[in-house]
Specification:
Distance between the termini of chain A: 25 Å
Strand content of chain A: under 5%
Order of helices and strands of chain A: HEEHHHHHHHHHHHH
Radius of gyration of chain B: 22 Å
Largest sheet of chain A: 2 strands, antiparallel
Radius of gyration of chain A: 23 Å
Helix content of chain B: over 70%
Oligomer: heterodimer
Order of helices and strands of chain B: HHHHHHHHHHH
Strand content of chain B: under 5%
Structural class of chain A: mainly alpha
Helix content of chain A: over 70%
Largest sheet of chain B: none
Number of helices of chain B: 11
Largest interface: A-B, 76 and 77 residues
Number of helices of chain A: 13
Distance between the termini of chain B: 36 Å
Shape of chain A: globular
Shape of chain B: globular
Number of strands of chain A: 2
Number of strands of chain B: 0
């Protein structure tokens, strides 16, 4: 450990200054804009934003989809992660590689593929009509369902990876011990696996939840202009209505949610370090 | 036996859900038809070739490449010293500085872009290319600090102390003992930063104008007006590019150790 204060500050200065000028100050000014009316501090923009039914619908939809995607990712993630840790170490590496692979592909490309799959003449509708389940093609695209599917595909890898590493750190004998003592699989999951991998679940859950709240491309492509989420609403308010007050309110909501999720993560990490 | 069957069924389903859409994009881009469809109507390379003829894609590709390369290099140039200071010194306000340089990862990109547009571009007359460069640098900075910090923490500090005791200057000790040891971490940070910046949309959304646009934003705009398979072809090409970069990095660097 070196002690020279001036030297250390000089090393940190360029990045700190950059972050302050390019990022922190502009974002803080943007946030303050929603808290001012004329020259005075006021909550008027927040009140009017949240009392508009459309805005409230979008707000609730964003939270709801974020929660649903997180729960679905957790369920599928546990199933997949439990299968993966049972593989031989060579196959486990390959499988993790396959699961990480989509993260390298542009989200525009990944989301765009769902248009081909879910569209009126897409594979899903072709299959449904040919089996005779529906007469007319279903309208799946431009709905909450489409956004849900797109977000799940986008963020599922993050959940699987956190759960795999949590399961790898879990004492493996715990499961067989519980089995020997007569627990059925459901009991093993609730009483052994879940408590021992809670941290991995929270880390994966935070990544998936904040990712879903702040995604732009997926709702823009799969939700269209009618099924808005907070990010797409922000974009519309600015580009169509020049309404910077609403944009600032939405920005504040998104940042507060994202920060609280990350604070939770940080507290969890420090609690773990103390133990 | 049953559980092995169930296990492979689950994994096959998950992999199909995650990677299947990518194969559909590749197949659709090889279509000889004029609209996006799967299964493709006939096989041809015409949409793949068309991508190279669309002029706006050429300029936005160059823009994205430039931003990803120079933004990431700048983020590393300012991120490596701060990571070093955080690891080796009792840095005053260390935690505050760490939070400040990592914050862009927590704040949604669209907000960074809007804030830059409103408070730097408009009042100070910054041009959009410069604003995009600053936005992409800010976006990559947290990754650079995180990856470089991780490899710095794995490195014992006594070798530099020894170099200093043996008469090296502090800077000389850094260049001769630290830099060679964190080279892999810096390369990993570069690749991660490059891919993140190149694929990024929200941060660049508000910061575009005539002739100034990143490739993914340009693709989104093209999608709004046209329904032909050229975007599918472009997506497939870009995906192969990203996978290729990451594959090579993994092969030669063991990239995943750092991320």
């Amino acid at each position: 450990m070196f002690q020279n204060r001036a030297e250390s500050l000089a090393l940190a200065l360029p990045a700190a200054l950059f972050a302050a000028v390019v990022f922190i100050v502009p974002v803080l000014i943007l946030l303050s804009e929603g808290l001012r009316l004329g020259g005075d501090w006021s909550l008027a923009h927040y009140v009017s934003f949240l009392s508009t039914p459309l805005n409230l619908t979008v707000f609730i939809r964003t939270l709801k989809l974020g929660a649903l995607v997180t729960v679905a990712a957790a369920v599928i993630g546990y199933a997949a992660a439990l299968c993966i840790v049972n593989l031989s170490s060579r196959n486990r590496g390959r499988m993790v590689g396959l699961i990480v692979l989509p993260l390298m592909i542009s989200p525009v490309a990944r989301t765009y593929a769902w248009i081909v799959i879910l569209g009126r003449t897409g594979i899903v509708n072709q299959a449904l009509t040919s089996i005779g389940l529906t007469d007319a093609p279903l309208r799946i695209l431009f709905s909450e369902t489409a956004i849900f599917i797109g977000l799940l595909q986008l963020f599922l890898p993050l959940m699987i990876i956190s759960l795999v590493s949590a399961l790898e750190n879990m004492p493996r004998d715990a499961i067989s011990a519980a089995r020997v003592l007569g627990a059925n699989w459901l009991q093993v999951f609730w009483k052994v696996i879940l408590p021992l991998t809670k941290e991995g679940l929270v880390i994966g859950g935070t990544l998936v939840f904040t990712g879903s709240l702040t995604a732009y491309i997926t709702p823009a492509i799969l939700g269209g202009s009618k099924v808005l989420m907070l990010e797409t609403l922000l974009y519309q308010r600015v580009t169509i209505a020049n309404d910077f007050a609403s944009a600032s309110v939405i920005a504040m909501i998104l940042i507060v949610m994202s920060f609280s999720a990350n604070l939770l993560l940080k507290r969890l990490a420090t609690a773990r370090a103390k133990r | 036996m049953t559980s092995r069957f169930v296990s492979s069924a689950i994994l096959t389903a998950v992999i199909t859900f995650l990677i299947g859409p990518f194969f559909i994009i590749v197949a659709a881009s090889l279509s000889a038809g004029d609209t996006l469809a799967f299964p493709p109507r006939g096989i041809s390379l015409k949409w793949v070739l068309k991508v190279f003829q669309i002029e706006s894609f050429q300029s936005s590709f160059l823009m994205s490449m430039g931003l990803a390369i120079f933004g990431t290099l700048t983020a590393l140039a300012i991120g490596t010293p701060v990571s070093y200071a955080l690891a080796r010194y009792k840095l005053p306000f260390g935690e505050t500085i760490r939070t400040a340089v990592s914050a862009p990862i927590i704040v949604p990109g669209i907000i960074v872009g809007l804030a830059l547009l409103r408070y730097l571009v408009i009042p100070f007359g910054f041009n959009l290319t410069l604003a995009l460069f600053l936005a992409h640098t800010a976006l990559v900075l947290p990754y650079a600090v995180r990856v470089v910090s991780a490899s710095m923490n794995n490195l014992r500090s006594d070798i530099e102390e020894a170099a200093v005791l043996l008469g090296c200057t502090r800077f000389g000790a850094f260049v001769r003992t630290v830099l060679p040891n964190i080279r892999g971490g810096i390369l990993a940070a570069f690749i991660l930063g490059f891919v993140t910046s190149f694929n990024q949309v929200p941060v660049s959304l508000f910061l575009s104008g005539p002739g100034v646009r990143t490739l993914p934003v340009d693709m989104l705009a093209y999608l709004e007006t046209t329904y032909d398979p050229s975007v599918a072809a472009l997506s497939a090409l870009l995906a192969f590019m990203s996978i290729g970069i990451v594959f090579l990095a993994e092969r030669f660097l063991g990239f995943s150790r750092y991320v």
